[in-house]
Amino acid sequence: MAGTEASINGFHDFPKNSFQSWGNYFQALMEIPHRLLDRIMSRSLDQTELVEVKAESQHEMKKTLTWWDLIWFGMGAVIGSGIFVLTGLETQSHAGPAVVLSYVISGISALLSVFCYTEFAVEIPVAGGSFAYLRVELGDFAAFIAAGNIIIEYVIGGATLAHPIAVVVIFIICILAVISTKASSRFNYVASIVHLIVIIFIIIAGLTKANPKNYTPFAPFGGRGMFQASAVLFFAYVGFDAVSTMAEETKNPARDIPIGLFGSMVITTLANCLLAMTLCLMQPYANVDKDAPYSVAFQAVGMGWAKYIVALGALKGIASVLLVGAVATTIIAFFTPLTILANLLSVSTLFIFMLVAVALIVRRYYVSGVTTQVNRIKLIVCLVLILGSSFGDGWIGYTITVPILFVRTMGLRLFVPHARNPRLWGVPLVPWLPSASIAINFFLLGSIDKASYIRT
Length: 456
Hints:
L-lysine transmembrane transporter activity
């Protein structure tokens, strides 16, 4: 953590005479451990990301976006993905009507992560997003690991959404995204308004056919199934981090980013929970269709015509999410099963969100040249203990580890002095909030099957 504050230029140049003799070559080999350690421990600076990295692009991004734009981008990035693609699968296979609580749990985890992302996006408003944040606080090596997961997140996320409509939609969306951020923002307004109208229609029309008996049994697969579904359905909240990468194009980051991120996440969480509740009231969980849950549910209650409205909403939701995170994902979309894609996406995303929460604690409690060696060691020990106490095996395990997590976070709060306060906007309740984010992300990661980690 202490390491060298490295510039963006990367590796030190190897000695030019390294290969001129066997002695020089041997000396160069002996320096490899030191060079690797230097790269692992090196960290970037806020100023480096804000000035030097931006200057390398030789093109200043136009600050055209407001909090209103960011709310719609946030909803476009998130709403419609998990709710239309995975709700049916998880309702029938793992959660039953308790899928509503699965969405609540995932939403809480996402909201905690939103807090952590917001402070970084306000303090370091650059297009690099989590990669830049981690490079500043955890160093180049952690940022490199995160970069691989970020690529997985966007590629698999796009592939998961495009699975029904692979090639054509991705191609069109890429063209729209390339034309202009503001133009794609306007398109997203219209598309998201249409989508919200469809969501409201599904909720109102669906509740007219509600049968409370369909909520019995509420959790047929028990708590474990509910949390397993929650880990997969975290996919429904993936995408909000893309909003933080737009900080460089935002007129007033200190005001617009918090409003944009929180506003879009609250609306998204409410919409997901209401839609899931409506679906399970319309049909017994065992009859919910895995591939087209809402269309089949309306068909089953005698409103077959409504499935065309549902299809419009699903297509819009998928298209707008791809607009915010378009990548060349066609081949993956064609040949990989949906369940595998969803699990891989959740693993990568939860891991990145956990790292960002760790980075926030480091940002508040460690400043190079200011924090003493003793306090640096205390911080490292506290972080290791917090990470260690975030593991648990089922409810019994967590009744032990959660109190331990509380005590260790209290130790960080009492024995390690703050080294830096946010300049413009800060996460409240530090270190409690980022510590809780670390814990719940680990909890959800532990609910994902072993095979997904092997594939990752």
